[in-house]
Design a protein that fits this description.
The complex is a heterodimer. By secondary structure, chain A is α+β, with helices and mostly antiparallel strands. Helix content of chain A is 33%, strand content 14%. The relative contact order of chain A is 0.13. Chain B is α/β, with parallel strands linked by helices. Chain B is globular, with a radius of gyration of 24 Å. The chains are: A alpha+beta, B alpha/beta.
Amino acid sequence: MEQKSISLKLKVWKQKNSQTKGSFETHSMNDVSTEMSFLEMFDVLNEKLIQEGKEPIAFDHDCREGICGMCSMYINGRPHGPWHETTTCQLHMRAFNNGETIVVEPWRANAFPVIKDLIVDRTPFDRIIQAGGFISVNTGNAVDANSLPVEKSKADASFAAAACIGCGACVAACKNSSAMLFVSAKVTHLALIPQGDPERKTRALDMVAQMDKEGFGACTNTGACEAVCPKGISLENIARLNKEYLLAGLTSEL
Amino acid sequence: MLDVKIPEGKLSEKWTHYKGHCKLVNPANKRNLEIIVVGTGLAGASAAASLGELGYQVKAFCFQDSPRRAHSIAAQGGINAAKNYQNDGDSVYRLFYDTIKGGDYRARESNVHRLAEVSTNIIDQCVAQGVPFAREYGGLLSNRSFGGTQVQRTFYAAGQTGQQLLIGAYQALERQIALGNVKMYNRHEMLDIVMVEDKARGIIARDLITGNLERHFGHAVLLCTGGYGNVFYLSTNAMGSNVTAAWKAHKKGAFFGNPCFTQIHPTCIPVSGDHQSKLTLMSESLRNDGRIWVPIKKEDSRKAKDIPETERDYYLERRYPAFGNLVPRDVASRAAKERCDAGYGVGTSKQAVYLDFTEAIIRYGKIEIGKKGLTTISESDIYKLGVDVVKEKYGNLFDMYQKITGDNPYEVPMRIYPAVHYTMGGLWVDYELMTSVKGLYCLGEANFSDHGANRLGASALMQGLADGYFVIPYTVGNYLADEIRTTNISTNHPAFAETEKKVNDRIEQLMQIKGTKSVESFHKRLGKIMWEKCGMARNAEGLKQAISEIQNLKKEFWNDVRIPGSIYEMNPELDKAGRVADFIELGELMCLDALTREESCGGHFREEFQTSDGETLRQDDKFMFVSNWEHKGEHEWELIKEELKYEEVKPSKRSYK
């Protein structure tokens, strides 16, 4: 691939901590190689800031392979930036043009308060999983793995939902900050396989209750979540969650 | 001096015998016993969940924002288990044998056999948790092949096996958190072990949001903190992966075993420039279908597709006909380096070889034609059908490759080069996974135990989960049974206060340096020294130079590092500084270990010890032992050997020809 150098202007959100007000800071960047990842561009910027005796910009990141779900930048009005089904860490500078201004913000949602700069608190997702996003099987209880065949199509669909990395882009993209795509992905993952069946009803009810308690908004099926999901989690999962939830509510006494 | 605690009896009966005779803790007593688990990857999450289920009071710590982020999540290819679902001759013994041989006869037989035994339970457990492994049309589990084996025993979930296994363990952990059996501390980093008399009794942890130090008591402490590949700066590890917890334990008396045993993975995306922050792996599973080659002609600058078949050198197939492209990682990596060093490398940097799927795509395309009963069809349609099959198998890896390099691997071969991926070395542990410090355990990649001098693909996930789900629940009980009379030690105990003060002093010292160079710049320099002199090939002269360079780097670091910000706030630069300081000290020990081990084995290749055709030359009469290093002071270690006794397997020259 051809390597180019571009110049950029970055408008980045700076916020000392959750108690203080934040604001945008502008930085000019020259000689940005188009082979760099977006986060490597931030590394270079931070090195420069440290050399100048300034504070670097704090951002969450870890695996840089698009799988841990830690990176979370709202780039030019879109979670994870312009590339389809791509996390911030996998976004490369080829996506931008020379002279462009790039605006970078943290996830914005009441349920995800800013901790510092571009870092937000996503522990509500952990608590939603705690409410029912599991199969209650203690270590040592399992039967032979092949004793329960699973239809391939269902296993594949379950896997597609389980591919969610819990990054929270869906919440950040949603005008209501709804966590429905996240919750529905987990409910679908576990509802489609026989192992998840015994807790199917309580799972749907309890996870939705916890989601509401955490302050996430309602879903209006706009689909912004699906459009920005780096793992291509489908809106169909939300339809399934609605079905699971309704059925559980109507039949939970049985 | 070293008590390995291997149970008596035949190898295949040791673990059964152990389980039948180890001490147990009754449920009422378990409720009063506290266990600290540091790290929440496969080993840590599975241990914390399983111990919580048993009724112990568990405190789990991770530096990430959620336990689900741990780097186990990035494992792509799969997990081995001796299920023999394929009826192709697999067994517990064969998995054990392959692992011992793959490790070039530098692993402990009893541990490896136990690993092979419990491997089957892991698959059962994960499926019960809802891990969506790949399945066949009949609804049963699918398998594939990995390097260093001739059977298909690898279970997988597309190229995201680690993610699915970790989410399984994470969900089990979250369930225990909801039940109140586990208390989770996110964004916390362990900065020291607290010793009361001669036992590990707790930790000092730092809240990475507020910067405050915290004291936590535990009747036992489990380190499940992963590997230290980031000592090389560029590796496939996550940015946060570090050696700090293990290193602090080492300085408190835990021996470090075989620190120089590093795995260089053959199939990674090559370095593209100085800005590079990490390297990305392309799963070993790709070697099931991809063929590795370089041009026969030196410095051939033609494009891959312009080089005819007869002018390509499929060097792995040529050198190792029995295993071909599926030779173990150390062998494949060295072979790639050999070709590139000899001037046959490809791409702009010439530090790369091709991983080519054309043949597999055509082969799969033809099978599809057969399945669909098509008769007249063009070559490009065959190719298209084949691409669809390959997409289903490895789609996410191909996409990742394209995002990073900008090249489409369905059209042009991938360019790959070896990169640091895993560390076989780690804290020494006995059969019970206890380190040389009483009450301090080490699980998963962080310990040294099961992979010898080279780990086989799809075995890291297996080991992490074996340790956490099926080994530690028994072995920690054997220790805690004698601790039921130990009431909780107050965190006001002088041992806690003293340890906390030392941690605090070090942080203040770091902040007061106020030098001119960033933490990152030191890390890069350390990585360069390590890669050049303690990487894929090592020699005595280079290692001696490396040691003195690292000692100088350490001095410079402590005089000239610049850490912005302050202590009592979120400060990622300060977090990183502490980790890099520990990496520098570890780097020195790795070089010392590599220098001392005057032989080549597995991933440890000493240029002075090789056969005429460039293969490793072991010195079994002199080095059939685990090198354990006891920390004695700055730049000072003492070597303590654990002799390896092979009762079942007869060490032979490892050949994949």
